[in-house]
Amino acid sequence: MRWWVWLIAVVVVIGAGAGIYLLKPINGPARDLTLAGDLTRGNYLVRLGGCVACHTDIKNGGAFLAGGVPLGTAFGSFVPPNITPDPDAGIGNWTLAEFSDAMSNGTGPGGKHFYPAFPYESYTLMSDQEIADLWVALQAVEPVATKAAESQIPFPFNIRLGMAAWQNLFFKPARFAPTEGKSEAWNRGKYLVNGPAHCVACHTPRNLLGARDDSQPLKGNARGSLVGQVPGIDKDNLIALGYDHDILTDVLNGGVTPEFDVPGGSMAEVIFESSVHWTQEDRDAVATYLLDE
Ligand code: HEC
Ligand code: HEC
User: Fold this and answer.
1) C-alpha dihedral (93, 97, 102, 103), degrees to nearest 10
2) Rounded Cα gap, residues 275 and 268, in angstroms
3) Which ligand is nearest to the CA of 277?
4) In this structure, which ligand is nearest to the CA of 167?
5) Is 233:199 a contact under the CB 8 Å cutoff?
6) CB-count exposure of residue 205 (10 Å: 0-12, 13-18, 19+)
7) 258 CA distance to ligand 1 centroid (A)?
8) Would you say the C-alpha torsion 279, 283, 289, 291 has a positive or negative sign?
9) 184-197: per-residue pLDDT in tens?
10) Are the beta carbons of 160 and 113 closer than 8 angstroms?
11) In this predicted structure, what is the pLDDT of residue 224?
């Protein structure tokens, strides 16, 4: 046989291998789906996770969790869908297992792969109990029968199968692991910042493919591939900006920065739809972790 026949065979085998690797299913650690959820805890998690900030069109008086304002990113405009329990327009036909897969593995019914504009890279860290709690809270929301608008995603990013490859390359489904030797508050802060409150989703730099660069945690996103330019909120940067524990918890509670300013843009939504609704203990925990106290 001619040498190039072998070459083609080798290329085909490598290509198929890469294809199989890139398109393999996303399966994080298994979850216990038998736990009974709690509505009160679930309602708190809806605020902790910022679901309201994205999935409600607050400025235009949109119904609670019935679909949000398009998120403009370098990869297209993503519309947070209706997540009320309406069976057609929302997620009323979903099972807990499907909801858990969306939150933990970034996949939806019918083998759909979600874009990381939905911060499942952070929600994957949540506990099985919290997934059950959130599910109960979402099912208790008033169903809204209107679908949200479609996302406007240009080629080639509109090919959802591409997200399977992206997830296989960049997404590591996992549960939260506390750091030994640190206080309970510090570890709660670590959990909130990386998990439900997903500060890392915006404040950790991302590369040209939108993958988070965890070697530079919370160092800010000058390129602004997801939500525009974002300042660093690692310890060094917070101190350089003039923050201490009290100013930071104050900002998260709707107060002013060391520059006597109120953060704008998507941070304003994080604050007013999410962190002002948290317990002071949780705002304290975030400050304890970010300032490494
Ligand atoms: C930063 C904005 C943002 C936040 C915060 C957010 N989401 Fe979403 N969510 C999205 C976007 C955008 C999509 C659509 C992703 C896609 O099309 O791939 C989505 C999709 C979903 C879906 C899939 C719905 C469907 O019909 O396919 C579920 C379920 C969901 N989000 C639940 C939640 C929950 C629960 C929370 C809070 C814990 C939350 N989201 C917080 C932006 C967000
Ligand atoms: C949806 C993206 C997003 C998320 C999530 C997010 N931030 Fe921000 N954050 C921003 C943006 C954008 C700014 C810049 C706001 C501005 O320019 O006015 C900002 C600004 C800030 C500032 C002000 C810094 C300064 O210049 O004084 C602090 C503090 C901060 N964020 C903390 C946090 C914490 C803590 C979390 C998690 C609880 C968080 N952010 C989650 C996008 C985000």
Assistant:
1) 120
2) 10
3) 2
4) 1
5) yes
6) buried
7) 32
8) negative
9) 999 999 999 999 99
10) yes
11) 55
Among protein residues, the one with the nearest Cα to ligand 1's atom 27 is 108
Q: Is 198 left (phi over 0), alpha (psi -120 to 50) or beta?
A: left
Name the residue type at position 278. Answer: W
Is residue 193 within 8 Å of residue 289, measured between CB atoms? yes
Long-range contacts of 210-215 (CB under 8 A, 24+ apart): 210/73, 210/74, 210/75, 210/116, 210/166, 211/166, 211/169, 211/170, 212/121, 212/170
**pLDDT tens-digit map of 55-110:** 999 989 999 999 998 888 878 899 999 999 999 999 999 999 999 999 999 999 99
Cα–Cα distance for residue pair 99/91, rounded to 1 Å: 9
Local confidence band at 127 (pLDDT 50, 70, 90 cut-offs): very high
Residue 285 CB burial class (10 angstroms; 0-12, 13-18, ≥19): buried
Rounded CA-CA distance 99/77 in Å is 23
